[in-house]
Write a structure and sequence with these properties.
By secondary structure, the chain is mostly helical. Among the domains are: 26-164; 392-491, no CATH class. The protein is 75% helix and 1% strand. It has a two-stranded antiparallel ribbon with strand order 1-2. The radius of gyration is 37 Å and the shape is elongated. 19% of the residues are buried.
Length: 491
């Protein structure tokens, strides 16, 4: 009995001792957490202030410089080869913040291990926590100093180079200003036209739908009739190897012209909005300018120096004048847009005129196709003995292609009907430059673009042994992609 009391007393003393140690440990770890969080708040606050100061200096000092035409001129002259990039600041700031937070997590883990093992000596841990701010304060100062020095150095470089080359900088700056002015005015013009078009579609949706339906129906009818004629002729004259290629080319040309003419007819109905013919001229002039001085909506600096001449100056002035005149007309139209309304009689008359146009053109284009067909049949028959019927013939297409593409660009996949992408825009530009496509660049793999692709395949004998499999037509499979990519990389 006495032994039992003794052991009970020992157990009680032990529990009390453990409780006292745990309580002391808990109080100590709590104070360590408080110390750590205060250090973190101090360091992060200082870091945020330094970062804010860098961004503030960037916005006030360097950003206005970048937006000037003088800076763009210096970039064109390669006087600025390593411009200050805010993304570099972002990366440096993010890396430093990540390092600060990793240090905080590491110290937090040390406190947790202290709690787990009930260590009695925490002096070393307190010293580590107190060293937190001492470690990162100089790193934050260095980050701030480096970025501010980079901004100051570039600003001084811009000033020095500008002062030393004033006349040259002024000439290039004036050229850039004139080019960008026309570009901005053209975008304004298109925005105003879109306002009118959106009004047309919202208030005259049924009428617009009927016009587009009749247009698409007529194109499909012409396509079907031409293809039917082509199939009959090819079936009759199987030995004329080149006939399929010639007929496909002529068919595509007729479809392209027909599509453009039908679009003009529809736009002509709304000619009171603006002068559509003048808009077409402006678009043509602007695209010529853009081809020479822009690539992917970025200025081509080398061309501004080498290609800008008196002809460019005249074209810019004429285009600007035409745009100003048309915008004035559009402003009047937009201001009175609520008073416009198309009567049912006008709509019926317009649709009737459009259908009459389609009917005449369908007949005339079919006659042109037939005349072209029999003219070439006679010519091919006269040279039949010189045609290598069973040999694979490869046409060498070596046009001068200037698409201003990134070096990494390649066609990597086929396109589906009505798919829209930047790669399809490039395909259309390429086919346009090798005279297989003459429709607008609309980024869409539509029927016209498909037919032009099919024509490219025929012209280069990419469908040998597969011509009867219609599923392979227009499909940009590996052989077609390889030749397209070869045309791009060889130029």
């Amino acid at each position: 009995m006495r032994k039992t009391k003794i052991w009970s007393l020992i157990l009680f003393v032990s529990l009390v001792s453990i409780s006292i140690v745990c309580s002391a440990s808990l109080n100590t770890s709590t104070s360590l957490y408080d110390l750590l969080n205060s250090q973190k708040t101090l360091v992060i606050g200082y870091f945020d202030k330094a970062s804010s100061d860098v961004y503030d200096k960037y916005d006030k000092l360097w950003k206005p410089v970048v937006q000037t035409v003088v800076y763009k001129s210096l970039v064109c002259l390669w006087a600025i080869t390593n411009p200050f990039d805010i993304t570099v600041v972002d990366t440096a700031k993010d890396n430093l913040r990540k390092s600060i937070l990793e240090e905080y997590i590491s110290l937090d883990g040390k406190i947790k291990r202290y709690e787990l093992w009930l260590l009695s000596d925490y002096t070393w841990l307190s010293l580590d926590i107190l060293a937190f701010s001492g470690k990162y304060t100089p790193l934050i100062n260095q980050f701030q100093t480096n970025q501010l020095l980079a901004i100051s150095w570039l600003i001084q470089s811009v000033r020095d180079y500008t002062n030393q080359n004033t006349q040259l900088i002024n000439t290039i700056s004036n050229n850039i200003t004139k080019i960008e002015s026309v570009n901005n005015w053209y975008e304004t013009l298109i925005q105003k036209i879109n306002i009118l078009q959106n009004w047309s579609f919202s208030w005259q949706s049924d009428f617009i739908k009927n016009l587009n339906t009749s247009k698409n129906l007529s194109i499909n009818i012409l396509d079907s009739n031409l293809q039917s004629q082509q199939d009959k002729i090819l079936k009759r004259y199987k030995k004329l190897t080149w006939l399929n290629l010639l007929l496909s080319e002529n068919k595509q040309n007729l479809l392209n012209i027909f599509s453009q003419d039908t679009e003009n007819q529809i736009n002509g109905i709304f000619s009171w909005y603006y002068d559509y013919i003048k808009l077409t001229q402006i678009k043509s002039d602007f695209l010529n300018l853009k081809k020479d001085f822009y690539s992917w909506n970025n200025l081509i600096c080398s061309n501004i120096i080498s290609k800008y001449n008196s002809t460019t100056e005249k074209l810019l002035l004429n285009t600007q004048s035409k745009i100003d005149w048309l915008i004035s007309w559009l402003n009047i139209s937009i201001s009175s847009i609520s008073s416009w309304w198309l009567s049912d009689l006008f709509k019926q008359s317009a649709l009737k005129n459009i259908k009459n146009f389609y009917s005449k053109r369908l007949n005339s284009d079919l006659q042109l196709f037939r005349a072209f067909t029999y003219q070439n049949i006679d010519s091919l028959f006269n040279n039949l003995l010189n045609i290598p019927v069973n040999n694979i013939i490869t046409w060498q297409i070596v046009p001068t292609i200037n698409l201003n593409l990134p070096q990494w660009f390649l066609f990597t996949k086929p396109f589906n009907l009505n798919e829209k992408s930047d790669s399809i825009k490039i395909l259309q530009q390429l086919l346009l430059q090798i005279w297989l496509y003459s429709w607008s660049i609309n980024w869409i793999y539509d029927s016209i673009t498909k037919n032009a692709t099919y024509l490219f395949q025929l012209k280069n004998w990419l469908l040998i042994w597969y011509e009867n499999r219609q599923a392979t037509r227009w499909w940009i499979w590996p052989a077609t992609r390889n030749l397209l990519n070869k045309l791009i990389t060889n130029n």
